[in-house]
Amino acid sequence: MRWWSWLAGRPGRRGERAWGRLHPDELCQLARTPDHPLAARAQAAVAELWVRTRDPALRAVVVHTGAVAAADPDFRLPHLVTLALHRRLDEAPAQGVANGLPALLDDPDPDVVAAAEQFALTASGPALSTLWRARAPAPRVRELVLANPEPLPDDALGAAWSAWLSTPDRRLWDKMDGRPAATGAVGRLSRVVLGLATPAQTYAAVLSGASSDLVASHALRWCRDRGYAPDDPAARAALFVLTGQMDRYRVLDPDGALLARAYHRAPQRLRRRLRAAMTEVDGVNPVRVLTGSDLVRRTMTAAEREYLIRHLAGRRAWDPLWQLALALPLVHAVHAARVFNGWRPPHEPDRTLFERLTAVRPTDLTAQGLDRQAVPARLRPLFERPPHLLRAADLGRVEEALARSAPESATPATALLLARLTHRFAP
After folding, report:
1. CA atoms within 13 A on the CB side of 412
2. CA of 397: how far to CAs of 378, 392, 420, in Å?
3. Radius of gyration (Cα) for the chain, nearest Å?
4. Which domain of life does the protein's organism represent (predicted)?
5. Whole-angstrom Cα distance, residue 18 to residue 326?
6. Counting Cβ atoms within 10 Å, is residue 307 exposed (0-12), middle (13-18) or buried (19+)?
7. What residue spans of 281-372 are helical by DSSP H?
């Protein structure tokens, strides 16, 4: 052992080769000999070896000697683990600790974990700012800095607001103490939430559709409480409905034309908010808003169709719901037909078409369902075509296809298609 230890201290390649042959016991002995020229190097090696193996004997040497693994490059995790073992994390750069803190909190050594927790709970000044500004902090780190009694540093407000806007937390809200972020999009949104933005910025957060529901809910409150409203009549009508100011809305838009205009030029997120708001208020005709003046030619999304079906069925508005079903492609009309609660159209030929619709299952009109029923390929597009795009010639095509097939081969899908075309084109 003495020979290799002596040779390891020599310069050059022979010394390095000898160092590489040292047994862990020899490294430990060197580490315990503070006046040996290789003591510091041995201590770092023992510390590194302990982090890698978690050998209890090596840990005892690390604790006894105060050994710390090498820091380079970029304050590696073994360096942080051994600093934590000695409760010396404050010796490392705050950014390095912030980067390594999630791993330290998951370390198998309870003393390392306790030191990491203590660091986060007691950090202050630049160290606390660095912890707050850490990119994508682990949930456990966020919990610890929230429990830190120190005030939230001003230079960490941007990170705190970003976190709150993503996941609202009352403790984080209290930490921010009504202070907005300084700059950028987060700064603008924080001022909207706190009521510090201009009227135009506030109602734009509602009407642009770009803001999250969280920001929009705060902006709506400020618009309602302070009377903010845009000059554009259609946008004003939308804002009045969103804020529940129905008296002002009815005066502005008695026939719903302005709200319909606002809805059709709105992005999808704002449309969703308007649909939700219309559910909660009286005095708005959602069919007029969603379809404008042309129910027949208006193309709706699946969400809009489902909204109108639920809305009309909930109010037992069967006649308007039937008119909606008549304006939908068959693949969508079958869904509408299933919510009529015992109602039937009072007149022919509506009743025949209604009975055909209710006799078909939605799965019958899927690609697999049409395959199963052997519906001719040339007829299949007609199930997805809006009624106003159907042509009288389509009725002849269906009648011809049915005439060529055996009577017993008629299917619910083809019977429904024939009923739809007959309803539309038969004299």
Report:
1. 19
2. 9, 9, 13
3. 36
4. Bacteria
5. 90
6. buried
7. 286-291, 302-314, 318-327, 330-337, 350-359, 367-372
How many Cβ atoms are within 10 Å of 122's Cβ, its own excluded?
A: 14
Is-contact 111 60, C-beta < 8 A? Answer: no
Residue 353's Cβ-side half-sphere holds a number of Cα atoms within 13 Å equal to: 25
Which tokens hold the place of 99?
Answer: 């980067």
Give the C-alpha separation, 31 to 41, whole Å: 8
The answer to whether 112 touches 85, Cβ cutoff 8 Å, is: yes
Q: Please tell me the distance from the alpha carbon of residue 20 to that of residue 16, in angstroms, as a whole number.
A: 6
Q: Closest by alpha carbon to 84, among 120, 53, 52?
A: 120
In tens digits, the chain (427 residues) has pLDDT values of 454 444 445 454 544 555 555 667 777 887 888 887 778 888 888 898 899 999 999 999 999 999 999 887 666 899 999 999 999 999 998 888 998 999 999 999 999 999 999 999 999 999 999 999 887 678 899 999 999 999 999 999 999 999 999 989 999 999 999 999 998 999 999 999 999 999 999 999 999 888 899 999 999 999 999 999 999 999 999 999 999 999 999 999 999 999 999 999 999 999 999 999 998 888 888 888 988 766 556 778 899 999 999 999 988 999 999 999 998 999 999 999 989 988 999 888 889 999 999 988 888 888 888 888 878 888 889 888 888 888 988 888 888 877 776 655 578 888 888 889 898 887 6
What the block records as the tokens of 237 is 């009508």
Residue 308 CA to residue 315 CA, distance in Å, equals 11
The tokens describing 253, both together, are 């838009």
Handedness of CA 93, 96, 101, 107 (dihedral sign): negative
Q: What's the rounded Cα separation, in Å, for the pair 241 and 277?
A: 7
How far, rounded to the nearest angstrom, does the alpha carbon of residue 40 sit from its chain's CA centroid?
Answer: 51
Contact call for residues 171 and 143 (beta carbons, < 8 A) = no
